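Hey all, quick one. A colleague (J.T.) asked me to put the Double cubane cluster job into the tracker so the inputs and the structure tokens live in one place instead of scattered across chat threads. No bug as far as I know, just bookkeeping. Sequence used:
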Amino acid sequence: MKKEEIMADYHEMWKDLGMDLETHDQLCEVLPQAFGDVYLSQENRPEGMDYFNFVVAEIHGVRPAELIEHQKKGGKVFGTFCVYVPDEIVFAADAIATGLCGGSQFWVPGGEKVLPTNTCPLIKASVGARLDRTCPFFRIADMYVGETTCDGKKKAWEILSEDVPVHVMNLPQMKRGKDIAAWAEEIAEFKDKVEEFTGNTVTADKLAAGIQLINTKRKALQRLYDLRKNERLPVSGCDALLISQIAFYDDPARFAEMTNKLCDELDERVKNGVSVVKDGTKRIMLTGTPLAIPNWKLHNIVETSGGAVVCEEMCTGTRYFEHLVDESRTTVEEQIQALAERYMNINCACFTPNEGRIDDILRLAREYKVDGIIDVNLKFCSLYDTEGYFVERAMKEAGIPVLGIETDYTDSDAQQLRTRVSAFIEMLNNA
Ligand code: BJ8
């Protein structure tokens, strides 16, 4: 099939989804340019990145078409916005879960039509993508799954639920025994909802398979991140971020397979001492709010300012894949308990207290041999902004240089960020 024919097919598909084709075409024009600038300009990229390049190049085509195929066979698609939502339950009901967080400024004005301007860009972009009908994933999802993490999201679910079915999971915001029990109850209720919506029963065997599937994805990501712990870096931070972002919407089994294939190549690189950066390049860890696709701004700035991003303590990073779900439980009830235990290990700033996150950052800084940390906060996210006080204090006490940054999805602060990041890296070089 020729390229024009493929694109023509997608237009038909987007039209059937009720999308605003004219506006969506504008997005299709700017994305390849942005991707080319950040990604294709990198040198010495592993060949295994070809798959991920392809997935991004066809982001609104190939995967949406697969989801629609699944729907044609009677399957359901659930759209999620938070790493607390257990995908295992969805896959166990023969449905598909796909991440929906918006990471582009393109969708923000649409969100601002209904949300206060001082809402975080992730929420505004997510609402805008749905209401403006400019993202196929937002059109395809039969049901959205929200959670009670931050205030902005809680209110956004109410707005979105006027347009699409939304199930909201009530996430406790402390981590006492009774909170874990409450989360297990919430997961059980979610299972009931998913069963009712799909018409499929979640049996212990099916849930075991779902748990294994998502654990396999987690292990592949952990393997990729472990490779970034090497002194000689086999893969750039930009590429690792892209893989983390794709993990949210790609087919989990294929994603794990392709990530493992890339890791085989990276193993060889490590053996042969191949690095994507010069020896002595300062190793930076990012911590903070998630970087939803296609938000590559900060990684790009760091890696074109003489630094290398070696780890992300973020939901598009370690918070997504660290800790496996115990696969030894045999009844649905026990499996749900195992899910609750695993998910409550994630340290999001919506919890109080959230000391576990500080411990994680200190541990990751050691494991990834980090020279400096950038604490990045999406504008108007008061949770992570406030928690930055503890993060930055703990890093100072541990003698790890830290730079606090607040940004959004626009490019208007790129120059200023570049100046600050360059000065930070120069300071690390001179230390
Ligand atoms: S577990 S970080 S994915 S809630 S939307 S909190 S940036 S104001 S995304 Fe998140 Fe789950 Fe926590 Fe992770 Fe702030 Fe914006 Fe809220 Fe956000």
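Adding what we noticed when we looked at it: The radius of gyration is 21 Å. The longest helix spans residues 204-227.
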